[in-house]
Write a structure and sequence with these properties.
The complex is a heterodimer of chains A (about 70) and B (about 700). By secondary structure, chain A is an alpha+beta fold. Chain A contains 2 helices and 5 strands; from the N terminus they run βαβββαβ. In chain A, about 20% of the residues lie in helices and about 40% in strands. Chain A has a 5-stranded antiparallel sheet with strand order 4-3-2-1-5. In chain A, a hairpin with a 6-residue loop joins strand 2 and strand 3. By secondary structure, chain B is α/β, with parallel strands linked by helices. Chain B contains 31 helices and 12 strands. Chain B has a 7-stranded mixed sheet with strand order 2-3-4-1-5-6-8, sandwiched between helices. In chain B, a hairpin with a 6-residue loop joins strand 2 and strand 3. Classes of the chains: A alpha+beta (about 70), B alpha/beta (about 700). Chains A and B meet through helix 1 and strand 4 of A and helix 3, helix 10, helix 11, helix 15 and strand 12 of B. Chain A: One of its GO terms (molecular function) is transition metal ion binding. Chain A: It comes from Pedobacter antarcticus 4BY. Chain A: This is Iron transporter.
Chain lengths: ~70, ~700
């Protein structure tokens, strides 16, 4: 299951990434395997989404969220 | 100023790096270019200790040394190249104390480059409030560098930071961090030999990003590529491994250093605000209200200072004409240079106000929310959430708006925003519309209370916005992206604006505009003045003879209008006038005669020149006279060729469309040149907008005729 499938309030633990290039960028921003992520809210039009990770709020498009595999 | 020490500020975005830079250097800073690269370079000077001066450079904020945008790539290039003029003797790494681990990732990369470094932990007061206690001494011991707790926002710890800078050793002291060698042992060794470095991390970085670096010869690039393929060097994979290793290292460094007692208190407030500000209904409603406020502020707050500036320059010109000896040089100085200067200075109030409001929105964190809300819509049209503010600002003036497009990191999104911003109807078009609408639209009411003229004006604004969005949509397919479009953005917590920063931004942006765009504007003003004041000498002689004769005849009627008749006739026979007649065949199908042609040419300097030029051509006493005078004159005007009334509905509407789409604003051309640092984009813009204007007018006139 990937991060874009969660709804606000739900959380999960990052397991891996499906896109190597994107994974570097996401990890630099603190999205590491083992971190807990929580979806905080969707933008009014459903995309992008705001997540809580590594002690701060990050927003990303659903496109990018879908490369993050969670459990 | 000669500096004893060069310091570079490096850090993540939103860490208060720029605030620290402003604190260190005050007004003692300047914006220049990094040679060969289109990134602004902010440098300033700062006193360290009693007798030393340091040159401080503020490098673009970045999350890692692997760049995601052109701006970010400068960081590694400066740090890597010891020959670079900006290469620092000392790095001050600014880190957000409330999110230490992510911020220290960049620290570990920078430290591995073996340049002396000091760690400045910013926002320590905020961390304390949130219940985060950081053992600074232990952190300093673990890392092997000086660590200073500061709060740039509240001016805390600056003295200690300066002391640390003064005491900094000139050789690196940092503890060795992650083992880099294991990531790609053979490739690193081979690269180290090739570029003669014993620093494994430097070698690794060069192997990753040498294609972006211009300090190597083509042969060296070739050899580096060969090393990469020989040793099966997979850039993304190795970057991933490096990042994981660094975080693991940071885990051990930070263990026992941070004690968190009041977990996540900082988010409660921000979350509550976000519930309203990014709400499905309220979010958009509040955004719309804020936009209305911004738009209104740019229009109404600037009205008074703009009037003063206009009046001031008019008085200066009058005074000059009174007291300076008459002659060509005086005319050039007053009507060319001073008029050009006036045309620049007049924009300052709008620029200052727009940037004050933008910097407040950014400082408070609201801008990130706007981007968040609007991204979906804007993306459809090839723009990004961050394009919203420049587009709205263009309703007042495209010049500051194009400058504000710099907030857009993605190159393609930014170029498209810059390219379409001038289509949005700006305040300079307003006098043109007002005059033309009063000429061609009857002063009637629709449904008994809506003025038809006001409705037309609103229609013109609508047309401009629709055009901008459509052109953006087309450009989305035409412009090739240099980088993959993605959107990963830190959402900062809400904060109070820093008023010093706001003031500094206003000052800095106005200054940049005056000095950068100003040069071009003055030059074009002078050229236009010369072309409007001179013509072939035989023609001018004939005019002078004709009017001398009239003067001698003492015909009182003719004499009362003598001066303005003479200047009208001179304008017609000047080079601008001749040019107007030359282009007439081209603009004839749009319903314009050569007199309008003259106005089109003089309008290239600035659209609002239209009214003044029409006044001169049609011999209205002075441009300052009531608009009704000009209107009546124009109403009676007949086509120079057919003798029929000139301003029919078709001609007037076609002319309005022309002004809506044409790039008649040299300030915009100049600022686009400055912002894109090439003539390519302003030229493309000039051509496409002129073509759009021409064909829109052509179609409108031919249909309505």
């Amino acid at each position: 299951m990937n991060l874009s499938q969660l709804t606000p309030g739900e959380r999960g633990t990052i397991v891996s990434f499906t896109d190597l290039e994107m994974s570097v960028k996401l990890m630099e921003m603190g999205c590491l395997p083992g971190e807990i992520v929580e979806v905080e809210r969707f933008a009014p039009l459903g995309d992008p989404i705001a997540i809580r990770v590594a002690g701060y709020q990050l927003c990303l498009r659903k496109n990018e969220a879908s490369v993050i595999i969670i459990s | 100023m000669a500096a004893d020490l060069k310091i570079a500020l490096v850090g993540n975005p939103n860490t208060g790096k720029s605030t620290l830079f402003n604190l260190l250097t005050g007004l003692n800073q300047k914006i220049g270019n990094f040679p060969g690269i289109t990134v602004d370079k902010k440098t300033g000077f700062c006193k360290i200790g009693d007798d030393k001066t340091a040159e401080v450079v503020d490098l673009p904020g970045t999350y890692s040394l692997y760049p995601k945008s052109k701006d970010e790539s400068i960081v590694f290039q400066i740090l890597a190249d010891r020959e670079n003029r900006s290469h620092p003797d000392l790095i001050v790494l600014v880190a957000d104390a409330t999110n230490l681990r992510r911020n220290l990732l960049l620290y570990t990369q920078v430290a591995d480059l073996q340049i002396p470094v000091i760690l400045a932990l910013n926002m320590t007061d905020m961390a304390k409030k949130e219940g985060l206690a950081i053992d600074i001494d232990q952190l300093s011991k673990n890392l092997g560098v000086q660590v200073v707790a500061i709060s740039a926002r509240n001016n805390i710890g600056l003295k200690e930071l300066k002391e640390a800078i003064a005491n900094a050793p000139s050789i690196p002291t940092q503890e060795p961090g992650t083992d880099i060698q294991v990531l790609a042992p053979e490739a690193i060794a081979a690269t180290g030999q090739l570029i003669k470095t014993t620093n494994p991390y430097f070698a690794l970085q060069v192997l990753h990003q040498h294609s972006e670096m211009d300090i190597y010869t083509p042969e060296q690039h070739q050899q580096l590529n060969q090393i990469a393929s020989e040793h099966n060097f997979e850039s993304s994979k190795i970057q991933t491994a490096e990042t994981v290793a660094r975080y693991r290292y940071l885990g051990t460094i930070l263990s026992g250093i941070i004690t968190d007692t009041g977990a996540q208190k900082k988010f409660i407030m921000s979350d509550r605000i976000d519930k309203v500000l990014t709400h499905k209904v309220w979010g958009f409603a509040i955004f719309l209200l804020i936009l209305l406020f911004v738009f209104n502020a740019i229009f109404s707050w600037s009205a008074y200072p703009m009037d003063m500036i206009e009046e001031g320059f008019a008085r200066l010109t009058d005074l000059g004409h009174e007291h300076l000896p008459e002659g060509m040089l005086t005319d050039l100085l007053l009507d060319g240079v001073v008029a050009g200067l006036g045309g620049i200075v007049i924009f300052i109030p709008q620029i200052a106000i727009l940037f004050a409001l933008i910097s407040i929105m950014e400082d408070t964190g609201y801008m990130a929310r706007v981007t968040f809300m609007m991204d979906r819509i804007m993306r459809k049209f090839g723009l990004s959430g961050k394009s919203v503010v420049p587009m709205i600002g263009s309703l007042a003036c495209a010049v500051p708006s194009i400058m504000s497009a710099r907030n857009i990191e993605n190159w393609k999104d930014r170029i498209i925003t810059i390219m379409v911003a001038p289509l949005v109807s700006c305040s300079a078009r307003l006098p043109v519309y007002t005059l033309l609408i009063s000429l061609i639209i009857p002063d009637e009411k629709v449904l008994g209370f809506i003025s038809l003229q006001a409705l037309t004006l609103m229609g013109m604004y609508l047309i401009s916005i629709i055009a901008a969005v459509l052109v953006a949509f087309v450009m989305k397919f035409l412009i090739k992206a240099k980088e993959k479009s993605y959107f990963i953005m830190e959402m900062p917590v809400y904060q109070r604006p820093r008023w010093n920063n706001v003031l500094l931004t206003m000052y800095e942006k106005s200054k940049t505009f005056v000095f950068e765009a100003g040069k071009v504007i003055i030059a074009i003003s002078i050229v236009l003045w010369v072309m409007a004041s001179f013509g072939p000498s035989d023609r001018f002689e004939r005019i002078d003879q004709k009017y001398e004769k009239i003067e001698l005849q003492q015909d009182s009627l003719a004499i009362s209008t003598l001066e303005r008749d003479r200047s009208a006739e001179k304008l017609e026979n000047s080079y601008v006038g001749i040019l107007g007649q030359t282009i007439e065949p081209a603009i004839r199908p749009l319903g314009f005669d050569w007199k309008i042609g003259i106005a089109l040419i003089t309008s290239f300097a600035a659209r609002e020149a239209f009214v003044g030029t029409m006044a001169t051509i049609y011999s209205v006493d002075s441009a300052d006279e009531e608009a009704t005078t000009i209107r009546n004159k124009l109403k009676g005007a007949t086509d120079a060729n057919t003798g029929l009334p000139l301003f029919t509905f078709a001609t007037g509407f076609s002319l309005m469309l022309f002004y809506a789409f044409a790039m008649q604003c040299m300030s915009t051309v100049a600022i686009v040149y400055r912002e894109t640092k090439s003539w390519k984009w302003p030229m493309i813009q000039l051509v496409y907008m002129t073509a759009l204007a021409y064909f829109a007018s052509l179609i409108a006139y031919q249909l309505l005729r």
